[in-house]
Design goal:
This protein has 5 helices and 11 strands; from the N terminus they run βαββββαβαββββαβα. The chain is of the alpha+beta class. The protein folds into 2 domains: 62 residues, Pre-PUA domain, domain 1 (Nuclear Transport Factor 2, Chain: A, Roll); 82 residues, Roll (Archaeosine Trna-guanine Transglycosylase, Chain: A, domain 4), CATH 2.30.130.
């Protein structure tokens, strides 16, 4: 199916879906959708913002870098950046700071020291556990530069 603008009803549904991952989509207008089988890619200002496959909703790096969300963010050191950008998990040793509200299985937004978002992940442990232990994997990366989501766009 070709890319087209979404209806008001679909826009309301998108706002509700985005709220589940702590993204405010209320101010978006002229949202377009591109559908391929069970995958949907939503565009705002001609930039891919939200990817949906089945029940999985993933904000793209374009959205994160345009909106700079503070909640559910993890900041990693320069040594971790190239690995995370290639899809490697985020390890506690490479974390400089993280939102203390992060719980196990929360969606997290990973950024570098220059406040550029470089990946989206799923927390494998709570922020409290990670900050206390300072060992092991903290988040599994599900979206990074050059992955399938950005190739679709």
């Amino acid at each position: 199916m070709a890319r087209h603008f979404i209806s008001r009803k679909d826009s309301k549904n998108l706002i509700q879906l985005c709220e589940k991952i702590n993204i405010d989509a209320k101010s978006w207008d002229k949202v377009e959708i591109d559908e391929h089988r069970d995958e949907k890619l939503y565009y705002v200002k001609s930039r891919p913002y939200i990817y949906i496959k089945g029940d999985t909703i993933i904000p793209t790096l374009f959205l994160l870098n345009d909106t700079k969300p503070e909640n559910f963010s993890i900041t990693v050191d320069d040594g971790a950046v190239p690995h995370v950008m290639n899809g490697a998990s985020v390890f506690a040793q490479g974390i400089v700071s993280m939102d203390k509200n992060i719980k196990k299985d929360s969606m997290v937004f990973i950024r570098d020291l220059k406040n550029r978002y470089i990946a989206v992940g799923i927390a494998e442990r709570s922020a409290e556990e990670v900050l206390n232990d300072r060992k092991g994997s903290a988040a599994r990366v599900i979206h990074h530069p050059g992955d399938k989501i950005l190739v679709l766009a």
